[in-house]
Amino acid sequence: MSGSLVPARRRGLADEVADRIREAIFGGVYAPGRQLREVELAEALGVSRGPVREALLRLEREGLVRGEWHRGTTVTSLSEEDVAELDSLRAALEHLAVERVVEHAGEEALAALDAVVSRMDRALDEHEMVRCDLEFHDAVYAAAGHRRLLEAWQAIRSQVHLFLLTRIGLATEGYLAGIPAEHRELVAALRTGERETALVLFAEHRRHAFEILSGRTS
């Protein structure tokens, strides 16, 4: 019948496979540039190649992997253009988020930020710290109270995670020690309600990682 719906297919297995591969990338098992072979992944995960192929397509849409006919699928290596685009887009989104948090966030939302910083103090390695960093920014966007802004952040979150993984791959000196204090300062600025101070501190927080990735620091 014209206009009828096509029956839905179960896609749960592909979702699970995508989650496993994503976590392996975020955990440092598969570094940027690493080739991901369907046969090897299927064997490791105990599934057929079909769900693996679907999962890789999903991760490609997230920007975590790239498929090229002559190379197959590889974990995304961020180019100079990728780094610049992610940084500028994140800056635009975060500017609005910070403004809204300063104007609207209540104590419960700010306490959620404090809780993430406390977890940072207990992070055992750089990969765990990166996860805490992303959770902190999740909490900032949640506190902003702007649904479409939160959705825009979630659309680039995996790529920002890759951005930060690339950053720690280049330099880790002082990272574990410095990140909690840096974020504690960000929360303090949000609590004071000083919009310009908060915007400057968040910009400085982004700039350090950007400079490492773009080769502007020694």
Helix-strand string: HEHHEEHHHHHH
Q: Assign a percent range to the helix content.
A: over 70%
Write the CATH fold name of the largest domain: Four Helix Bundle (Hemerythrin (Met), subunit A)
Extract low-pLDDT stretches. none
CATH architecture of the largest domain: Up-down Bundle
Q: What structural category do the secondary elements indicate?
A: mainly alpha
Query: Strand-residue fraction?
Result: under 5%
Whole-number mean pLDDT? 90
Count of alpha/pi helices? 9
CATH level 1 class label of the largest domain: Mainly Alpha
- Tell me which oligomeric state these chains represent: single chain
Gross geometry: elongated
Number of domains: 2
Radius of gyration: 19 Å
* Biggest sheet architecture: 3 strands, antiparallel
Strand order of the largest sheet: 1-3-2
